[in-house]
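Thread: Ribosomal RNA small subunit methyltransferase H, structure

OP (GT): Posting the sequence first so everyone is looking at the same thing. Length is 315 residues per the record. Can we get the structure tokens written out before standup tomorrow? I want them in the notebook alongside the other entries.
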Amino acid sequence: MKHVSVLLDESIDMLNIKNDGIYVDCTLGRGGHSEQILKRCPQGHLYAFDLDQNAIEESRPRLEAISDNFTLVHEPFENLASVLDRYGVDQVDGILMDLGVSSPQFDDASRGFSYRFDARLDMRMNQEADLDAWKVVNTYSQEELTRIFREYGEDPFASKIARKICEIRTEKPINTTFELVDVIRSALPPAVLRKKGHPAKQIFQALRIEVNQELAQLQKVLDDGLKRLAPGGRMAVITFHSLEDRMVKKTFAKAALPPKTDKRLPQMGIENLEYHLVNRKPVQASDEELEENQRAHSAKLRGIERHEIKGENRS
């Protein structure tokens, strides 16, 4: 199955790429966004991160066909600042993030990301990592499971599902995705099972976020990335669920919008804000893209730009 990058044209346009700019793709995947960035900065350089070594090796020939002005980094994108320091890069002209699990990872049954395929519970984006979904499901306490199901999955039956998991695993480990789906189903009332949508979707999302520490990493790279943007530089972020989108929206608003005050009082310091929002409302997929790519339904694109403050000395 061919991987189709979500909101490809919209995100590339949002970066406003310069011919000689320096760019970072925090989520290389199969190279769709990185390919378009390289095409637009023939005299610049691209740094592309991915935890999945398979993604790096599959993307390399695609990028080499365009240019050799790129560096592939097999590290978590939360290491953005230290990696740029290693290469002597102080500021960049653009940062792109396409969050979530790539379609090839979902479609590879052996990776254990999807409730659609039976496989060992895994869900590691970095297959060299120690923590996987099996360990979370079979070793976390009932209280810990309830917390991650509630916080990361926003599942109203978090406590019931956590309790059922702990009951079942006293008899035998829960080894596979289908075994976990059966346990989740057994914890839910019939009325919920009759509803549209897969009953395990939110629990699988929660496990994936916990295994890969996605939200903690995202907050760090947002904070570090904003500091690394050069004047005129932009950050564009594509999210796929509400937890990510709220984090991006809140972080961008904190940087680009004045704090809320009494509207009857004079607004002070607005002109000195260092960033501004590229778009107030998130960009979503067109009807044409939705017809071709179902994964785009939940995608939201937000952007922010750094501008120079008058009188500031950037040496």
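GT: Both are above now. Quick notes for whoever picks this up: The chain has 14 helices and seven strands. The CA atoms of residues 250 and 256 lie 10 Å apart.
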